[in-house]
Amino acid sequence: AEYADKPLAALLVASGSCSSSRDARRLLEQGAVKIDGERVDLSFAISALTPGQAYVLQVGKRTFRKITLDI
């Protein structure tokens, strides 16, 4: 349950997709973050993701990360 109750911005920083939580929040507010092709924002709950399943995290046009959650 490492990220289940944390904001999505913390996951973006931990994955190396953003350099700071402020930068992550700004990108989320601008609609520049997608998980498996679906745009997410600040209201997205990490707990909505299925543990153990791989997801493609896109930040901006060119930054892609494959993430797997151990919730």
Could you walk me through the main structural features you see in this protein, from its secondary elements to its overall organization?
The structure is a single chain. This protein has 71 residues and is of the alpha+beta class. The protein is 24% helix and 24% strand. It is built from two helices and four strands. The protein has a four-stranded antiparallel beta sheet. Strand 3 (54-59) and strand 4 (63-68) form a beta hairpin. Helix 1 (8-14) crosses helix 2 (21-30). It is globular. The protein starts with 7 loop residues before the first helix and ends with a strand. The model has no long low-confidence stretch (mean pLDDT 91).
Helices and strands in order, then pairings?
Blueprint (H helix, E strand, L loop, with lengths): L7 H7 L6 H10 L2 E3 L2 E2 L14 E6 L3 E6 L3
Antiparallel strand pairs: 1-2, 1-3, 3-4
Q: Gist?
A:
The chain is α+β, with helices and mostly antiparallel strands and about 70 residues long. The protein is built from two helices and four strands, in the order ααββββ.
Output mean pLDDT: 91
Radius of gyration: 11 Å
Question: What structural class do the secondary elements suggest?
Answer: alpha+beta
How large is the share of residues in beta strands?
15-25%
Unreliable spans are none
Give the overall silhouette: globular
- The count of helical stretches stands at 2
- Which percent bin holds the helix content? 10-25%
